[in-house]
Give the backbone structure.
Amino acid sequence: MPSKAKTGKKLVIVESPAKSKTIAKYLGEGFIVEASIGHIRDLPQPSELPAELKKTSVGKFAVDIEHDFKPYYVVSPDKKKKVTELKAALKDADELYLATDGDREGEAIAWHLLEVLKPKVPVYRMTFGEITKEAIQRAMGNLRDVDTALVDAQETRRVLDRLYGYEISPVLWRKVARGLSAGRVQSVVTRMVVDRERERMAFKAASYWDLTGQFGADAGSFKAKLAAVDGAKVASGRDFNDDGVLTSKNVAHLNEELAASLAAGLQDASFTVRSVDTKPYTRRPAAPFTTSTLQQEAGRKLRFSSKSTMQVAQRLYENGYITYMRTDSSALSDEAVTAARRQASELYGPEYIPQSPRVYTGKAANAQEAHEAIRPAGDSFRTPAQVAKQLSGDEFRLYELIWKRTVASQMADAKGSTATIRLGAVSADGRDAEFSASGTVITFPGFLAAYEEGKDETRGDDDSDEARRLPNVAKGDALKASDIIAVGHETSPPPRYTEASLTAELEKKGIGRPSTYASTISTIQDRGYVRKQGSALVPSWIAFSVIRLLEQHFSDYVDYEFTADMEGDLDKIANGQAVGASWLRHFYFGEDSDPGLLSIVNNLGEIDAREINSIPITDQITLRVGKFGPYLESSAATVDPKTGEIVESPRANVPEDLAPDELTAAKAIELMETAAPEERVLGTDPHTGHTVVAKNGRYGAYVTEVIPEMTEEQIAAQPVEYYKNGKPKPPKKPVKAKPRTGSLFKSMTVESVTLDEALQLMSLPRVLGEDAEGNLITVQNGRFGPYLKKGTDSRSIGSEEEIFTITLDQALEIYSQPKQRGARAAVPPLAEFGPDPVSEKNIVVKEGRFGPYITDGITNITVPRATSLEELTREQAVELLAEKRAKGPVKRTATRKAPAKKKATAKK
């Protein structure tokens, strides 16, 4: 068979179209660059397996657990066309270059391409950390084969996550709620948020007092704080534990009375300077960004979510502005170090760079992948001003942050001095009071001229030295005191995690991979385990139930050290020091005294679902996690005053915006005492005979009918159906009829609504009649008020009461008027949230054609269906707009009209 003729074409495959466009500019003639658009194949759902495999060892997970956990991969349905296109492109190529990302995921994509395309031409693995001409040229000189150890590590992780999720999630479905999921990292991250909330719930505040005063000398005045009384240090927040107990010894714990009397006794006291201590101050710059630190700092400084940060960073990388954004390394290449030092010297002066380049090494547990730090792309950096016109607002802000951090990392230390003045006096009652003041003066800003790292919220007193200059005083100088006042404080609970501080803690513990932190934090919010309150992450009550079940029955799998150790094992596989199949066998089947996941699942025993979903709040009030959300239930016997009989335990709904640590015993009692009756019987519908009741539901009060279920006798009396063989089929369980319901008007309550009003509400929508064209017109109540409906044309009406009084003629009159859209100045926004931090335009929520949406007048984003307008916060609105901007404008494909058909000419 003759060999294929040479074409001179070289096929390069990357993951994304944006990356393919950028790299194509640097490869030159003869190269064809195509994008796989991510993974081309994956594990299918077990239900999608061929029938002959469903009853084999592959059937449960789409992984052959009896033969080295070999995955059963299928090309994704939406990628079949792409695979066909790639195969066609490969037919015309003499060489194949797999240029996917250089991490485990990218290596796996390259391997899958190799397996599916089955190339018969030379294949080269090509990796680069940035998309610049220099980087591409270097990559072409360092080609290699696909790294099978990295592929094994990624495949092991994928199979591990399938085993974990598919074995543990069904337990959650049975014992907590349908639709929940467990994940190797997601469940541990959820536990961290729940544990922090538990600490806050158990926390007991302690109060303590101190004094502040203003002190003047000839050289100027300054503020100082009480530091010691009679030689004993004054107690501060850090001297108490979380139970509110003073743990430090030999400290003076001042209460309000003692502090007030001391302040009064010092009003006329003579203060003198007792000591002046000056120390040199040095501060080093932070290391260049890793994935984790970039997410943290973008959260602090730009208010980006982790997800938004990675979306924007992805675009910057693919378009050649920054290096690869998934990295655990803070190291810079020699070219980058030179570029940063050169730029710092040019912009700030040669004295702003140290004599020797700075070298950074990773500090995170389980640091993975030997990538370079995230920095501006190229062997010379473009300043933010040089790229401003080419980038969107969010892209520019993130690029500027990366540029500043990179340049600052190679700049000189900040220098200065810190002065501490201690001064004192004896009060009128003989107590010796010593005050202290500190201030730092920067004499040489060094790297601070370019960049200063942000900080997360911390506990305790802020004793950090202020950047202030204290007056020049000496020991023994007399000082004039004024405004000496007693100040009360309370210890604070551990702060809730933000996305930034949670990311930092995950990296510190070595849990998961920094490249997946953004998607994990996003997932636990999407699953309903965690919500945002401002920037703080608050766990839901269902998260408490899930974590409680996992802690009791799968303790290892939500243990922090165990999870971090698994990451270490996966790193060994990536380094070729271990084999994935052997590790998976031990994890799933166990070995000797170490039970595997299968054994634990098969020997769970009885799990008390009610106990798992119950959290005691007081001796008599318990929080239950129910099918329709959390509620409080009292164990106190309730007696019906009319009959004297003990009735069902009283209940109260828990407001959705009430954080778990805010549900104190006092709050629970208040909710129980103010709870409206859960259900009130209004009477019987004379037409159907059904009982009509008014209820307080999770989404407001409503009325409904109670449809009795069929008795066994009624079911048995139904006509009998037969199989083809003549045998009778068992009686079918009847389909449950859907009861009529109706939300109460704003003017109604469960206690006041009558049977007649309830029957009217349940009869909606009300048919008014037809227009001249035969279109039916109805009136009903909606989420945003009462309205008329004619086909797809809806018109608002004045009040809810008009629903039962408006006539067909009045409706026709409304429809005869032109429909008012954007010009209706009278319609106010549904909500207002103030100026957007990016556009500085006012953020409002408006009612749109497809539902409510958030807008700042420039960017629009629909309010998520899972979020009600009442729950929507300013922080969520800002974040949703930021995420929409991060995705960039929607690319609309132009539709080409088919050319008009030529009319056939009649033959003559």
Observations:
- DSSP finds 25 helices and 38 strands in the chain.
- The first strand starts at residue 10 and ends at 14.
